[in-house]
Amino acid sequence: MTKILVIDDHPIVLLGCRRVLEDAGITDITLASNLIEGFRAYRSDKPDVIIIDLAIKKGVLVGLTFIRRLRVHDKHTPILVLTMHEDPMIASQSLRLGANGYILKDTSSVDIIKALQAVRQGKPFLSHAIASAIAVMETKGRSNPLSAMTLRELQTLELIAQGKQYTAIAEELNVSYKTIANTCSQIKGKLGVKSLPELMRIAIDHLPEMSGQGIGERPAPTSRTGKYW
Known about the structure:
The model is unreliable at about 210-229 (pLDDT under 50). The chain has ten helices and six strands. Helix content is about 50%, strand content about 10%. It has two domains: about 5-140, Rossmann fold (3-Layer(aba) Sandwich), CATH 3.40.50; about 150-205, Orthogonal Bundle (Arc Repressor Mutant, subunit A), CATH 1.10.10.
């Protein structure tokens, strides 16, 4: 019997996923409303497929961070992203970090099951609109200047866009001031800019999910504490 873990912070989405899965004959379903619950369920239940939203509480980089961290420990469990975000850069980044499929929340229940079956069998699956958007983006040479950023660089850049100084950013990300200074130097080099105002302008123009809520996540505790990594 297929075991499914669904991670989403919207109760209605969780219940909707349960209904879709149960209608398809899948009954071994675990629902988690945050990443800590999701990681604990992953460790205890050993699901066959993980379905995850990206924008959990703080924004898409939190979901992307979860995928990256999970892949450090587990290279094989299929991950299906179920999200509202149509940005091809976000989709491409999800796949690069280890997601096996990427579908939109307005996808039909039939296609959700098709996506689930595909990733369960080791096959990639993309919503048609996302596949087309990625193809167009790659044809244009990935014009978004942030496409070459690492996850930590994107987190740092987002906090810069909020007007935070290096000391505050270091505290937010639980790293040293020197680490942030070096990260910002790397970002400036990649983007060809010299000042923080220039970085802020680029972030505001190009960063996805700039909702003002913040997406810089503190590194979570390790698994030895019984919590999320």
